[in-house]
Amino acid sequence: MKISRKVKQLISDSKSVLILVSRPIDLDCLGSGIGLASYLRRGGKKVDLYSAFGIPSPVDELPLFETVTKDKVTDLDFGGYDLVIAIDGGNPRQFAQVASDEEFNFAGVRNLLNIDHHEGNLHFSKFEIWDPQASSTSEVILGSIVETESLDKNEATLFYAGLVGDTGNFKYNFTSHTLDLASRLLNKGADQEFIIDKYFYHNKKSDFRVFSEAIRKTEFNEDLGYSMLVIDEKEWKKHLKVRHSDIESGIYLYKNLFMRAIQGIKMGFLLVKTGKGYFVQYRGNAYRNSFSIFDIAEEMDSTGQGHANAGGFLIKGDDLEAITKKLERAIAKLSDEK
Ligand SMILES: [Mn+2]
User: Fold this and answer.
1) How far is the CA of 139 from the centre of ligand 1 (A)?
2) Can you name the CATH fold of 210-337?
3) Is the whole model's pTM more than 0.90, yes or no?
4) pLDDT tens across 189-222, in order?
5) How far is the CA of 308 from the centre of ligand 1 (A)?
6) Which one, out of 30, 63, 111, 178, has a CA that is 20 to 30 A from the CA of 274?
């Protein structure tokens, strides 16, 4: 992707850079964040890299993971850096431990650059490199500010991890350009065996307890072609004898293996009750689903971020039946429009 001269100049002129990664912490945001930090450091810049959020396994085994500082980012001196880069998220609240976008604005920042690929991006930043067509933020960065040819082995592995994470190991959301980049990263020594082994062949026993419970509780709507799972975390913790992190880990498996891969089902929804309503995560089957599921967020007047076939949004209220009805109306309407 081509970027403006101004942004290019800004990056090359900046001597001190702060990089923030976004939640949800995944292979793409962390891989591209750590990879970019390392690349800019080797280019002579002073780079700090922060995450406001805990980093789940197995993402915490990426190379150079120790270069990420986990801390409250709201207290950082943003004005003390020539450039602040916010990676792989389109809303301010994804970068800090805050409940809403209004509560965090990178106070005092001199130059803010957002690098992202999500639909629903709020365009909160003065400078941005945003490509919703790209598979991942790793792909956005590789095509714009990082020369693939000059990456070292660790950086190649990190960006490769980003491509693998956001395409499900090249199962969806990729183009010939993505594969071209992947090929070039392998030529630069990207350790794909490490990434695949850690990421796809390291399920925990607790994952299967959570996974089987999730499957057991999943309901289907054959007419509209969706599946739905409502998680009661408190109940699951007690009944399955698992911790929050175990639920996250098992549900990760459910989202990737199950939600978009059922015969006759075009999309899956996962609802988790929060203080403000239900957080809805979705996965769509790109080969069968005809519309951008993220448009449901707009239909339901809710905020979130995502892509056509993966993402999440918050629905206010706690009347599950009413929410389901609204969701079904939105699905029916969007299906009809296509
Ligand atoms: Mn991403």
Assistant:
1) 9
2) Diaminopimelate Epimerase; Chain A, domain 1 (3.10.310)
3) no
4) 999 999 999 999 999 999 999 999 999 999 999 9
5) 13
6) 30
